[in-house]
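4.2 Preliminary Data

To establish feasibility before requesting continued support, the project team ran the inverse folding procedure on a target of 140 residues. The structure was first converted into the token representation described in Section 3, and no sequence information of any kind was made available to the design step. The complete token record follows.
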């Protein structure tokens, strides 16, 4: 099928906003993933995060989505990553995949999220409850 939407934005995102973009009459399964900011990381309390992206990150995100679509031609993909200052409970990554059957949607969505984390130049700056902070690269 296809990649229907990719973006890097500074505004709130959700899978609910992406679902209508991938919906189609021939799709009986819609799988979504929300990467939500949590209040801890490796046993440390987290107050907030700030995400920054490289100027090529939007193109990298589109490339990742296209690669997943080429491996799973039966799916429709929408994926958005948020940058800027985020607080606990905000969604940093929203991905939605639709297909005729659930197996294809689940597999493609899992691969999509994993590949975004590895291949897209977005970095997070974590601020901890103990006053410390650290940068974490999405490219590992």
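Position-by-position output of the design step:
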């Amino acid at each position: 099928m296809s990649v229907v939407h990719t973006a890097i934005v500074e505004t709130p995102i959700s899978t609910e906003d992406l679902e209508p973009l991938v919906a189609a009459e021939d799709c009986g399964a819609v799988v979504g993933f929300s990467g939500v900011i949590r209040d801890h990381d490796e046993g440390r309390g987290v107050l907030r995060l700030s995400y920054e992206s490289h100027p090529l990150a939007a193109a990298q995100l589109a490339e990742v989505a296209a690669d997943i679509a080429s491996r799973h031609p039966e799916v429709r993909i929408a994926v958005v990553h948020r940058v800027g200052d985020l607080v606990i409970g905000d969604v940093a990554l929203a991905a939605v995949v639709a297909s005729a059957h659930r197996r294809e949607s689940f597999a493609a969505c899992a691969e999509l999220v994993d590949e975004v984390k590895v291949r897209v130049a977005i970095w997070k700056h974590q601020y901890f409850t103990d006053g410390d902070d650290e940068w974490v690269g999405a490219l590992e």
